[in-house]
Amino acid sequence: METNLTEAPAVSASESEAETPWLTAAEQRFWRAHLEVSKLLDYQLGRELQPHNLAINDYEILVVLSEAPDRRMRMTDLATATLQSKSRLSHQITRMEAAGLVLRQECPGDRRGLYANLTELGWDTMQKVAPDHVRSVRQHFVDRFTPEQIDAMYQALAPVAEHLRNLRGRG
Amino acid sequence: METNLTEAPAVSASESEAETPWLTAAEQRFWRAHLEVSKLLDYQLGRELQPHNLAINDYEILVVLSEAPDRRMRMTDLATATLQSKSRLSHQITRMEAAGLVLRQECPGDRRGLYANLTELGWDTMQKVAPDHVRSVRQHFVDRFTPEQIDAMYQALAPVAEHLRNLRGRG
DNA sequence: CCCGGATTGTTAAAAGTTGTACAATGTAGC
DNA sequence: GCTACATTGTACAACTTTTAACAATCCGGG
Question: Which pLDDT value is given to residue B168?
């Protein structure tokens, strides 16, 4: 059901046979479970944001801005924080500005720059939506693990996140 | 850096304060680590498929088809297996057909239906790309866990995958 | 056989994303 | 203060995904 061929193909070229470090059965099922959960969870959370007229990306912007000092952030920083390209973020903010959720604001001291500012409506929207979203996250993910599993998985994932973040930085 | 507000907002309405099951600190950091790893890993694996002129979605199709009986699958089944909409899959297959990787084939016994067939080129491409992909998956993910962690995480994730799969089915 | 409803896959148009180039600044070294 | 170079955000064009509608086909009940 999931993807990413990582076990030996049904028929392997004898050449790659010798050298490719195919995943073991245990690794394989873990990898596929991870992929499947990621994808389906994304789908389900998006689904449950729809009634609020927000896509997951919109919500992410609202969260990051709401946690930022003065509820605003430079476009580039926001793009970095949300792992989007500057171009994509620019479009995204244009849409959210049209929806009244954020506002572009000149940046004193750097006339090249702009702030993306959370509006009152943006802030209120976030306050209204967040409780539902947490419930979704709990229902479909967090509450399905024991506290021990949660700690263990965090310990395991944190260095991987670190690694990937570093890779990304360099390009 | 990541997203999805799931902890209490800086200022909570007293109403939601009482009723919203905000994540604990431990839950929060786990949740954000999971999100971050998912997103960045996707990005990185996509990046490392680029030299082969394949997007992750293309690769996923190749994998699923290569594992299917006769290396072909009904469009609807393929859409389900890869968690895509029928429309999106249709476009995707059109592109891959243009690239010579797959071929649409009439479906004997159901004249509405079509098979998506892996071509020789598609199969060969898969054989060629898979080794590199496994190495990527190992380098950025699998090899960064101990065998014990892998088993534990699989045990934890499998029921969640099951849950989400069921949800998806009903819509 | 024939009807009504469900299923299959495609399509057109709208919406969103990506990559590249660009204009407007900023900044460091001379 | 100039020049060279880096940074900021946008704009355009190409591409991908979504949404909604549709034609063709199948299937079950009368």
Answer: 80
